[in-house]
Amino acid sequence: MKGGNEMSNQIQQKTILFTIGRAGYPVTRCIQIAKLLASHRILFAASEKQTLVLQKLDQQGFAPLSYVSKADLKKLLQEHEPDVVISDGGDTDIDEGKLLSSLVPVTLHFDDFGEGGKAATRVVQSLYHEDREQVPSHYVIGPSAFIVPEELEPYANSGLKQTTALPLPHVVVTFADADADNLSYRTLRHLLHLQIPLAITVALHSSYPHSRDDLKLMALGRKQTRIVDCDDPIQLISESDLVICDASYTPYHVAVIGKPCIVIAEDEREAQHAFPKEANGFIYLGLGRKLKQSHLQNAVMETILHPNRSVRAIKKQLSLKLGTNNLNMQRFLEKIIQEEAREITK
After folding, report:
1. What does the alpha-carbon distance between residue 195 and residue 232 come to, in Å, rounded to a whole number?
2. CA nearest 275: which of 243, 300, 249?
């Protein structure tokens, strides 16, 4: 008990300001990190243009600060004098990186592929690339960088259990955010040409910009095919027999649960992500706009008709033990915050 008190005394409370540049998983991640670092004073900030980010923070009971320009952000930092800034949801340029580091003792950037990361205290990359060139020593990359949302924790490691309530194999199609190339439509069209009975759910994000009616019209021709609006498909994924998704953050959600998964990159940037590949238990089909119908259909058939392969894939995913990431990340962040603070004090 005495040791615990000593440890708590060693942790000095800091003011931590989160700046969030994009809706979706980045804001979810920041909220989860804030809960992990709840012993500190927490502030949130986002651009006025990020209405979805500000709305979600409001819904979660936070009172986010908003700014219009980088000059406004600078004033905000000068006013609140945070000890730590955690930047998430976008690439920063070198000027922004230097601005943050000049005003704040500790700067942590998540999934920042811009030049601004070079000025940060640490950069944490869960959307890491293949090791083609050496990364700077202050970059932390790999699956251990993924923060598990609180909503996902009840479903962790449940994938080997039979949870489907449908008599047919249930395929869940979910592409993140705007799905610019409308891979939801293309994937459904290819699936409907398969001559095997399937239950299909296509989950559309609220920012999906294409015609929902086109999808619903196509779904009318096949029983047990439905189109749903869903920003958080965790439960759908848990109820599936096969997931078809983007190559961004969704594969991480899948791997926490453990499900057979076909991954299709939404754009060239996603195509560089190294996590959702065969070694980690995924079937990766490359860039969506170049996807051939036969390749997707063969991948679906192999998964449905060879359950032993699916079990092996799930075991690969679960062997990553992503469910332990939050505790490890909490320790890592506390260590960085306290050690850097001591260095600055010296």
Report:
1. 30
2. 249
What is the CB-side half-sphere exposure of residue 151 using CA atoms within 13 A? 14
How far is residue 337's CA from residue 346's CA, in Å, rounded to a whole number?
Answer: 14
Backbone φ/ψ region at 162: left (φ over 0), alpha (ψ -120 to 50), beta: beta
168 burial class (0-12, 13-18, 19+ CB within 10 angstroms)? Answer: middle
pTM: 0.91
Cα 265 to chain centroid distance, Å, stands at 14
Separation CA 286–CA 288 (nearest Å):
6
Q: What are the structure tokens assigned to 19, written together? A: 């700046």
Residue with token string 């891979």 = 183
Q: Which helix (H) or strand (E) holds 268?
A: helix 268-271
Residue-level length of the chain: 346
Closest to 318 measured CA to CA, from 178, 161, 167: 161
- Partners of 172 in the beta sheet? 201, 243
DSSP 3-state of 335:
helix
pLDDT band of residue 11 (cuts 50, 70, 90) is low
**For 77-89, what is the mean pLDDT?**
95
pLDDT over 50 at 66, yes or no: yes
Q: Any idea which residue has 């006013």 for tokens?
A: 79
Q: Output DSSP code: residue 23.
A: S
DSSP string, 52-94: HHHHHHHHTT---EEESSHHHHHHHHHHH--SEEEEESSPPPH
CA atoms within a 13 Å half-sphere pointing along the CA-CB vector of 68: 0
Q: Pairing relation of β-strands 84-88 and 242-245? A: unpaired
Return the pLDDT at 282: 98
Indicate the burial class of 345 (C-beta count within 10 angstroms; 0-12, 13-18, 19 or more). Answer: exposed
